[in-house]
Amino acid sequence: MLSYKELGLVNSKELFAKAVKGGYAIPAFNFNNLEQLQAIIGACVETKSPVILQVSSGARKYANQTLLRHLAKGAVEYAHELGYDIPIVLHLDHGDTFELCKSCIESGFSSVMIDGSHHPYEKNVELTAQVVEYAHKYDVTVEGELGVLAGIEDEVSSEVSHYTKPEEVEDFVKKTGVDSLAISIGTSHGANKFTPDQCTRTEDGILVPPPLRFDILEEIEKRIPGFPIVLHGASSVPVELVKIINSNGGKLKDAVGIPEEQLRRAAASAVCKVNIDSDGRLAMTAAIRKVFNENPAEFDPRKYLGPARDALKELYKHKIINVLGSAGKA
Ligand code: G3H
Ligand code: 13P
Ligand code: ZN
Predict the structure, then answer these.
(1) Quick check: pTM over 0.90?
(2) Which CATH architecture has domain 9-324?
(3) Dist. CA 20–CA 17, nearest whole Å
(4) Ligand 2 atom with minimal separation from the 187 CA
């Protein structure tokens, strides 16, 4: 058993309490490699933002759990070396079994998500409560989920969305003891969050998605006032990045995300954790495609991963400063 405290990490409890009170959200950025981690820590230190380093089960397999643990410890030391000790959470994203959550807790994670949202309600309660009971023994925080996010090209999401039922949240929070709750109000995973026929199209061909269901969020907030809410599937899929990708050999069709002004509005509410993965993937891919297209003779990975890292860092700083409002909160 390796406690996250030995790695210099923190759980999310205090960060969420401050974020809910302060009307901002903590960024939860997914990572699985060195350049992403460098970009995340660089951006968060420069903006003095707390951060949640988020690892999916697929990412854990990809990067190797032992390396990940050392990377997270390294992230704490790297921030210190850059000149500012920001609070860093290492979080399991979309944990699907008790065993996976337990294994992450034992290898240094300070926070886990148990995503029982695909199960019937009672099974979700039972599984989530089991993870909470174990995690809390080690001071590890737990995120649960109610409601299912839709998503078109992502293995973690369903074909259709099922919005969170506000009438279930009080009971779920009480019975499970979770520390935060992911909800479904119209976001979804991946770069194709909506089909074109769900959107309207502007004169210059840009797809505009249907607005998030702030009425559901408000109803949830009324029932569990001040309780930390999490928004998954919160990438904006910037049009400029899609254009760079497609003009350098890519083929992303009908990619559309959540407009940033809606995320700003959510961050000012009880939403205190916003999950962003796809926008980072797009920023890296755009930078790499550009190098490959403009300089086909290049074969030193640092020459394309370096620009990708720089682009990622700029994207993260933008999210922190202009969307989530977490700059200066570390
Ligand atoms: O919500 C899911 C994240 O974007 C992680 O995706 O399972 O492909 O690592 P992944
Ligand atoms: P995006 O695909 O919108 O970046 O969402 C990521 C996410 O929710 C990770 O859990
Ligand atoms: Zn998610």
Answers:
(1) yes
(2) Alpha-Beta Barrel (3.20)
(3) 5
(4) 3
